[in-house]
Amino acid sequence: MAEEEVARISVAVRCRPLSEHERSNMVQSICRVMDGRLVILLDPGASAAHDYLRQDKSKEKRFAFDQAFGPDADTKTLFTATAEPLIKSVLQGYNATVFAYGSTGAGKTFTMIGTPVEPGIMFRSVEEIFKGVATVVDEGTESFSISCSFVEVYNENFRDLAGNSDREGILDLREDPVSGSYVAGIREIQTESVQEVMDLLQHGNQRRTTEPTAMNVTSSRSHAVLQVRVERKGNPSNPSGSLLGKLSMIDLAGSERAAETKNQGVRLLEGANINRSLLALGNCINALASGSHFVPYRDSKLTRLLKDSLGGNCKTVMIATTSPGHLSYEDTLNTLKYANRAKNIRVRAKQNLVTPDEHVSQYEHAIADLRNEVAIL
Ligand code: ADP
Ligand code: MG
């Protein structure tokens, strides 16, 4: 029997340190983290910088999350507390998702992808998966197959960050009866080592669509999704079939409004699309948090892809990233409100047990899909 677990989405906030540039420009820090779960935001209002340093409590906004990390917390600490517990679940055949949400410059890419010195959640998770697999393989008779895909949602289109650009036109979302939404036509890479995945990540990240905007020259206008699939054979809970775990890790594009980045022309269209995806994400979070029966997943590519991760068959961690500076007050407040709403979302994760029969039915689905494609061509 497949195990099932009902839980809420786990929401963590990470407030990055002020940058050197911000310090030298007298940017004041208005975001404080207490007790590992409280975030306190001071309203700078329209007054001068020294006003909020008086710590007027009436200007404070307090939020409580599952976890909160201040400027001193490194990514390893964040990883250990948020994503690491999910890895065990993935090896047991569950779906899990970690996504970073926040405005441009708040630290999403730093948290998810990171740098060679401070590797992000994606690297650390994959490393942990390989470690976990090695331990089980050493112990007994089980075998694993691990595959990865890396895709971006840009302008409401999918782009394969691991594959050839000439296949981009045919990428679209499909539903798999066992593992949920997936991007059809995408390159699935069988991987044997962490290094291979890292190469995929580095290579793919360089291919990401980044455009200069007035707000941040390296601002990414795309959502990047790394998915790692782990198929486990020979487990006593399903000896004749397999356990199918999937870990999705998402570095979202900036959540700020298009108007604030002074975008025009093409860039505005991209901004509108990014907002469409993020607006849809917000609407889905609202609907799920209020227990509404209708959730508008179909309104954007991003929400269709994340359907399982939000309120479906998945264990989900949201990492809301915030900038500490007083100039980011509105964005930070929006992010914290958003994250606060997401806390109410319930998910129902169940172990994905694939029996030999289901394998056959999966192939039948795949064949039906291909027939449809041929009919359209
Ligand atoms: P985003 O992806 O949200 O637009 P980035 O991850 O690119 O933002 O972060 C913006 C800048 O801040 C980068 O230069 C990054 O290295 C730095 N940064 C972000 N988070 C941290 C952190 N926790 N510690 C140190 N530097 C950080
Ligand atoms: Mg980024």
Automatic annotation (TrEMBL):
Q: Coiled-coil ranges per the record?
A: 360-377
For binding ATP, which residues are annotated in this chain's numbering?
A: G102, S103, T104, G105, A106, G107, K108, T109
Q: Which domain of life is it from?
A: Eukaryota
Tell me which residues make up the Kinesin motor domain. 8-345
The family line of this record is: Belongs to the TRAFAC class myosin-kinesin ATPase superfamily. Kinesin family.
Provide the protein name. Answer: Kinesin-like protein
